[in-house]
# Entry
Amino acid sequence: MPSNPDKLAGETHEGPVSGHVEATVQRLIELQVEHDRQASTMQRVANRVTAALGKPSFVAFILTLIIIWMIGNYIADQLGVQVLERFPFPDLAFFATIGALVVALLILTTQRYDEALAEKRAQLTLQIAMLGERKTTKIIALLEEQRRDNPLLASRIDVEADHMGRPLDPLEALEKVQAATSNDQAD
# Structure
């Protein structure tokens, strides 16, 4: 038995992470880099601005500006100095509305960009899952064939293994999932 329970007998590892895991991680990084490389200049700017706006320090900065604006106008009014605007601060409300609109549009742009990468990852995950299912099906079919052909093993019919040894039809599986989901929602 190997001393590491995650390591199978005869399995080789290159450093702390096995080679196939490292290759998979590298491929995912390449997917991210390629996605970022295809982004337009405007998209890159929108991503950077959205990242900056999403920091707590920026929220504190904006709140500080608003408070300074309000208190400054109040103090100027009390000192008899000309104020930029009086309560209820319509200019401040106007700038805040424009700022909120711009931020909302930036967020939507960034989300759309991120959803495109998520879609690529979902497609990759589906392809990997389907490949894994085909491999597992083939292994079960080969094991069943070996069991039937080996005279040292008892010959018996294993309905479950026969069923699991048949390839999965993804559309049929999707229909079953949707039917089960609609039945659960109807209850």
Notes: Confidence is low (pLDDT under 50) at residues 1-14. The first helix runs from residue 19 to 37. The CA atoms of residues 164 and 172 lie 15 Å apart. Helices lie at 19-37, 41-53, 56-79, 90-149, 159-164, 170-186.
